[in-house]
Write a structure and sequence with these properties.
Elements lengths: L2 H25 L2 H5 L2 E8 L4 E3 H13 L3 E14 L2 E16 L2 E18 L2 E18 L10 H4 L7 H9 L14 H14 L10
Parallel strand pairs: 1-6
Antiparallel strand pairs: 1-2, 3-4, 4-5, 5-6
């Protein structure tokens, strides 16, 4: 098998994992969702940061009590070096919830930035860090109006402030600063991605 064919096969396997993450998470297929990750997988999101197993548990709890978060995907760019890979995938996160008795949709556009590794001939996700580029909030019924608290809204970074606002209002603890389109957070993420492909460990994760 030539190197170019092997890389194509690796990229197809990684893309399948990226798509399975979204389908199985949004469908509540938790047993299969867990297989996307390696055992030491780690997840970062607006409302959560920690081990993948704990993320799956909390995602399942929210899903079972009616939390409405769905994902959609666009194109991917995948870099493979030996047994490691970095992928960037265009995505949208859509969450629906009521605020001030008005049903609202938040749509956040960005990228999934994923660290993959092949272990014992199996690719798995090691770390997922979404990049939040822009978002908006709209009442589902366009005749309704929701008045947002400007101080609370502006306390969150620009790329996901409406998503963070809605999540805070419904009881989630949104903290820290996640990578956006520009800034030191995304530059650090890009640097760590290059180091990962060079064989370094993930120093951006807590010990």
């Amino acid at each position: 098998m030539t190197d170019s064919i092997k890389i194509i096969q690796d990229k197809l396997a990684i893309r399948e994992l990226i798509e399975n993450w979204v389908i199985w998470s949004d469908a509540g297929d938790w047993e299969r969702f867990e297989t996307v990750w390696h055992d030491d997988g780690y997840m970062s999101a607006t409302w959560f940061e920690g081990p993948a197993k704990e993320f799956i548990r909390k995602r399942r709890e929210g899903w079972e009590r009616g939390v409405n978060i769905i994902h959609s995907l666009g194109g991917s760019s995948i870099d493979v070096v030996k047994n490691r890979a970095i992928s960037q995938t265009k995505m949208q996160i859509s969450q629906r919830a009521s605020m001030q008795d008005v049903l609202c949709d938040v749509v956040c556009t960005g990228r999934f930035y994923d660290f993959f590794e092949r272990r014992k001939r199996r690719w798995g996700m090691v770390f997922r860090q979404p990049i939040y580029e822009k978002d908006r909030i709209d009442p589902v019924d366009s005749s309704k109006v929701v008045k947002l608290d400007g101080a609370l809204l502006n306390s969150f970074p620009e790329g996901y402030r409406h998503l963070a606002y809605l999540q805070t209002v419904i009881g989630y603890n949104v903290r820290g600063v996640r990578p956006g389109l520009k800034g030191p957070e995304i530059e650090q993420l890009y640097t760590q991605g290059k180091r990962w492909l060079d064989g370094d460990e993930l120093s951006i994760l807590p010990k």
